[in-house]
Every structure is written in structure tokens, then in C-alpha cells.
Amino acid sequence: MNDVLAHISGINFEMFNSICLYLQVNMLSEIVDSNGKQICSEILDGTATPFPSTIQWPYQPNPTLEAWHVWSNTISLLYTKPSGV
Fold it and tell me: Is the overall model pTM greater than 0.90, yes or no?
């Protein structure tokens, strides 16, 4: 998800990154369904919990509601198509 850097910066990137740390994800493939065609709904609505990982991640408490909004908006903008397309 490094392409996010081309679209957001500053505090918005920090908020986006706080969600990545909280969920313990760093690739798009980790947040889509098994077909790779849809982003898991709990990822966008803020109800997701950290994924199990064998990597040692830094502790990140549940991010703010504002951070979840930045995350959801950014993921939707970059990786989803409008309905009916």
C-alpha cells in the first residue's frame, strides 16, 4: 500500500498508518476477500480487529474515529470502483 504516499501526506498519512499498525497489515492482499475482488467490509467500517501475525509489530491502541474515516476514505478512493461500473 505504498501508493498511498502519492495521495495523502502529513497528519492524514499518520492516521492511515496508525490503522495499518493496529490491524497489522502492510499489503492490499491482506485486507481483501479470498478472490481478491472485494475489500472486507469490517476493514472499511472500523470494526476489524488486529490480524494474527508472526511479525513483531509495535503496540498500537485502537485508532481514533477520525483515523478510521481517513483509512476508509483512502482505501475506497484508491482501491474500489463506483457501484455499477
Answer: no
Helix axes 65-79, 10-23, angle to 10 degrees: 90
- Residue 67 C-alpha cell reads as 483515523
Residue 60, H or E segment: none
- Could you tell me which residues come within 8 angstroms of residue 51 by beta carbon, excluding any fewer than 6 positions away? 23, 24, 25, 30
Q: What is the pLDDT of residues 6-50, one digit of tens each?
A: 999 999 999 999 999 999 998 999 999 888 888 988 888 888 888
Q: What are the residue boundaries of the structural domains of the chain, listed by start? A: 2-79
Residue pair 61/19 in contact by the 8 Å Cβ criterion: no
